[in-house]
Amino acid sequence: MTIEIKTSMLEPVRHTFAHIERRFGDKPATRYQEATYDVQSETNFHYRPLWQPDLELNDPRRTDIQMNDWYAFKDPRQFYYGSYVQQRAKMQEAAENNYAFFEKRNLADHLSEELRASLIRFLVPFRHVEHTANLNNVYGAAYGYGTAITQALMFDGMDRLGMAQYLSRIGLILDGNSGDSLVEAKTQWMSADIWQGVRAICEEMLVTKDWFELLIAQDFVIDNLVANLVYEQWDEKLAENGGQDVAMLTEFMRVWHKDTARWVDAVIKVAAVESDENQLLISGWVTKWRGKAAEAFAPLCNEMLSEKALTDALSVMDKRLAKAGIK
């Protein structure tokens, strides 16, 4: 007796969800597409928000930017929850190894008292800037429109909370976990003249209502200056003065900025290409916050680096802006 085994192919009735099929056709979708496109609720709300009765809960009018399709803000990294968590877990594992190496070898003991004081005065207070960035991005996630951008803003907000914690951890390494460095850093943030401009611009961002303007101010202008001034120019100065090991503790921020800049630049470019009105709005916001940030960072930059350092950082920002197509 012989047994003949046959195989037969079963054609699936559908290849993806209906709302994805309407946008991309009946074909297998990526996990990013399934988790992102047309996910946000748009209809069947019973109540308007009591604090803004003229708007819906999810309302595109909370920014002056106008888009025909709010899902045009595709994340070039294609981060949805799963891919975001996996990528950041790898980054965190590398950062934890760096911190463990630094503490195991007692590398903080090789820092001079002058360098320790410099780190507490110039670096640790940036944890307050990162906390502000957390609130600004979470605000955008709450009041933005379209999951393509709101989920990316939420991921960015969580990243900023993590970086604030890493900066606090650097302070604890310096003071042997007593917390004295964090107290001193907060005193610097609250009282030192060099920090008052940065503190003021952070407070102004916290009361800015247009979430897209806030994205320009925080994620493009402020982040660009911090990345260049602190994690590039000041990092080089530290290395030249015996603080090269500190770079192990700030490597996460350097890698993170390169990763996130891809998304921010893509968002600005897509919005600007949409219409001349958007281009004009974005250009105006960049000019406004670039001027405020330059004035705010000048005292800090002059003492931490030099007057020329700020000019160089602004030049880097302008080149990035030109690449994004903003005049």
TrEMBL record:
Keywords: Monooxygenase, Oxidoreductase. The keyword Oxidoreductase applies. InterPro entries: Ferritin-like_SF, MP_mOase_hydro, Phenol_Hydrox, RNR-like. GO terms for molecular function: oxidoreductase activity, acting on paired donors, with incorporation or reduction of molecular oxygen, NAD(P)H as one donor, and incorporation of one atom of oxygen. SUPFAM superfamilies: Ferritin-like (SSF47240). This is Phenol hydroxylase P1 protein. It comes from Neptunomonas japonica JAMM 1380.
